[in-house]
Amino acid sequence: MSSPEEQAFRLLTEYSNGFMVSQVLFAACELGVFDLLAEAPEPLGAAAVAARLGTSSHGTELLLDTCVSLKLLQVETKTGKALYQNTELSSTYLVRASPKCQGNMLRYLARTTYLCWGHLTQAVRDGRNQYLEAFGVPSDQLFSAIYRSEDERLLFMRGLQDVWSVSGRPVLGAFDLSPFPLICDVGGDFFKDPLPEADLYLLARVLHDWTDERCSRLLARIRRACKPGGGVLVIESLLAADGRGPLTAQLYSLNMLVQTEGRERTPAQYRALLAAAGFRHVQCRRTGGLYDAILATR
Ligand SMILES: C[S@@+](CC[C@H](N)C(=O)[O-])C[C@H]1O[C@@H](n2cnc3c(N)ncnc32)[C@H](O)[C@@H]1O
Fold first, then answer.
1. Which residue, 103, 139, 119, is CA-closest to 28?
2. How many CB atoms lie within 10 A of CB 17?
3. For the domain 173-298, what is the CATH superfamily, name and number?
4. Could you read off the pLDDT of 138-148 as tens digits, one per residue?
5. Looking at the chain, which residues constitute the CATH 3.40.50.150 domain(s)?
6. What's the rounded Cα separation, in Å, for the pair 295 and 162?
7. Residue 149: pLDDT band by 50, 70, 90 thresholds?
8. N or C: more exposed end of the chain, with fewer CB within 10 A?
């Protein structure tokens, strides 16, 4: 039995090494470890993986064995030789050919989000995103405000699609949407472009990018476009009523701080924004997954 002090130190070490775990995952994805093992007809040794990926034998062996400890790979020893293959987790979420592959999102997190998080301390000091510090570019000079290039924007959109392939169904099932035969998934330049006619406007992972003032402007536009009985379905990660959890929503809110103008919000904060825009009936549903649903009708 370890003492409370030892347990606390173990937890501290786990937290401080957390970024190393992310990097092992990112590197294995970026190098194509999981795709190679999925495509190989049988489990491969470290030397074969290194030869096919063009990587060092020492680095590859370390990476593969660390992936085993993280349950991203499994290993069996046959006649003294370690042979690696994917686990169920990696076969489902890390192999390109899987319909639930999260590879684009992991690449975006590795290439963009991770760099912004390197400036979290300063983001907390300044209360604003760190694009200038992370990329040397003020956000008003970036492509579409938050992307460095069209390639980065496309990678992010594909990443969002990856997450949606796993998390979309629970949020769309949170409410009976049968009273809304025509649904518009709001995207593009929704602050300027006219909104198409619809019974329900879907605002998925949009409001968390923006300040309260910009959210109010967008919700007021949607409210004006709504027919009687029409509404808006907001999909976001809800914070607890006091803002102190769940941890994933808190981390996403910090992510909004380092990457955008926005934040994650509590149900009461969404209710206030929606009510101010003229929506009279507002219902919040937690799904237990990454995203929750808020249905507001006029
Ligand atoms: C985080 S994405 C969410 C996309 C989609 N609803 C989903 O859940 O996958 C943000 C959306 O805001 C739109 N948008 C409008 N103005 C933007 C801006 N200045 N910067 C970034 N995104 C912007 C993008 O076109 C994109 O559709």
1. 103
2. 10
3. Vaccinia Virus protein VP39 (3.40.50.150)
4. 766 655 557 88
5. 173-298
6. 24
7. confident
8. N
- Read off the pLDDT of each residue in 183-189 and give the average, rounded to a whole number: 95
pTM of the complete model: 0.94
Sequence ranges of the chain with CATH classification 1.10.10.10: 4-93
- Tell how far the Cα of 210 is from the centroid of ligand 1, in angstroms: 10
Query: CATH number of the domain at 4-93, please?
Result: 1.10.10.10
Q: What is the pLDDT of residue 116?
A: 92
Which residue's CA is the nearest one to ligand 1's atom 5? Answer: 204
pLDDT, residue 143, reads 55
Ligand 1: atom nearest CA of 161 is 9
- Tokens 């380092």: give the residue: 258
Q: How far is the CA of 225 from the centre of ligand 1 (A)?
A: 19
pLDDT tens per residue across span 155-176? 999 999 999 999 999 999 999 9
